[in-house]
Amino acid sequence: MKEFTIEKNDATQRLDRWLGKTLPLLPAPLAQKYIRLKRVKVNGKGSQRDYRLQLGDRLQLYINDEFFDTPTPENAFLSIFKPSLSIVYEDENLLLVDKRPGMVVHPDESERVNTLITHIQAYLYQKREWSPYWEHSFTPALCNRIDRNTGGIVIAAKNAETLRIMNDKIRDREIDKFYLAVVLGRMNPPEGRLESFLLKDEAKKQVAVYRRPVAGGKNALTLYKTLRVKDGLSLVECELLTGRTHQIRAQFADAGCPLLGDGKYGRERENKKYGRSGQALYSYKLTFSFPTDAGILNSLKGKTFTVENVDFVDEYFGG
């Protein structure tokens, strides 16, 4: 329990607003709940959220200590009352989460709180599976990343051993990653392999495609297969053999069939024609092939996990 005495500058404020200002990490719905449960007392008694504080009032807060911390990127998860996650699979070691387009995976200059990793941390904290306040606590971490405007499966490790194994498996290409994409026009041939070298421009946050090795460039390999063609668009399944920044987006644009909705590598006139903003790209399937030992993750060997519904498939190809 922590106690506060209301001074002149805080007098006449509503109780709930004072609580939000004093404890910025405490989600507003949780603050309202604590007021209702009388875990917030005024002069030793329960009160209403709209009570106007008076000079000299004594407030007793029966609230967990962590909510009194100074907000930082490390404790931002505390401010999330109801984590928004679409969980594809979960066990004691990891989570497979279907990230929605528009959400960033980690905090950046544009978003500090509403990120995928923050929602995952809030989810596990509220389940009491993890807390940064436990001794030697491991912080849940993402094993792979997806662009803000791309949706799909992201792997989150609940413990250090899982993170180590997953990092090794991704590096050794023992996890098969499949994407669905809608591209403009038709790929020729309809099934094949895209192989090139990508050079990243950090200032523009964009990559250039080269057919031959170039200084600083990284090789990029993508297998693709056309699944459907309709109204000038093609639905393509892509298998990543490497995992480079903007790999699918840049390679298909270079092949003459940019992704629908891609504002960086695509065609703005075509995007407007079809009413699409944000690239039509989804990491919809993962297979844990694991030809070598996977330790505590051996039970996942050979298993495939799929996102059943991808919105742009329904929108442009009727399901």
From TrEMBL:
<dbReference type="GO" id="GO:0009982">
    <property type="term" value="F:pseudouridine synthase activity"/>
</dbReference>
<dbReference type="GO" id="GO:0003723">
    <property type="term" value="F:RNA binding"/>
</dbReference>
<keyword id="KW-0694">RNA-binding</keyword>
<feature type="domain" description="Pseudouridine synthase RsuA/RluA-like">
    <location>
        <begin position="93"/>
        <end position="253"/>
    </location>
</feature>
<feature type="active site">
    <location>
        <position position="147"/>
    </location>
</feature>
<comment type="function">
    <text>Responsible for synthesis of pseudouridine from uracil.</text>
</comment>
<dbReference type="Pfam" id="PF00849">
    <property type="entry name" value="PseudoU_synth_2"/>
</dbReference>
<dbReference type="InterPro" id="IPR020103">
    <property type="entry name" value="PsdUridine_synth_cat_dom_sf"/>
</dbReference>
<dbReference type="InterPro" id="IPR036986">
    <property type="entry name" value="S4_RNA-bd_sf"/>
</dbReference>
<dbReference type="InterPro" id="IPR006145">
    <property type="entry name" value="PsdUridine_synth_RsuA/RluA"/>
</dbReference>
<dbReference type="GO" id="GO:0140098">
    <property type="term" value="F:catalytic activity, acting on RNA"/>
</dbReference>
<dbReference type="InterPro" id="IPR006225">
    <property type="entry name" value="PsdUridine_synth_RluC/D"/>
</dbReference>
<keyword id="KW-0413">Isomerase</keyword>
<comment type="similarity">
    <text>Belongs to the pseudouridine synthase RluA family.</text>
</comment>
<dbReference type="GO" id="GO:0006396">
    <property type="term" value="P:RNA processing"/>
</dbReference>
<dbReference type="GO" id="GO:0001522">
    <property type="term" value="P:pseudouridine synthesis"/>
</dbReference>
<protein>
    <recommendedName>
        <fullName>Pseudouridine synthase</fullName>
        <ecNumber>5.4.99.-</ecNumber>
    </recommendedName>
</protein>
<dbReference type="InterPro" id="IPR050188">
    <property type="entry name" value="RluA_PseudoU_synthase"/>
</dbReference>
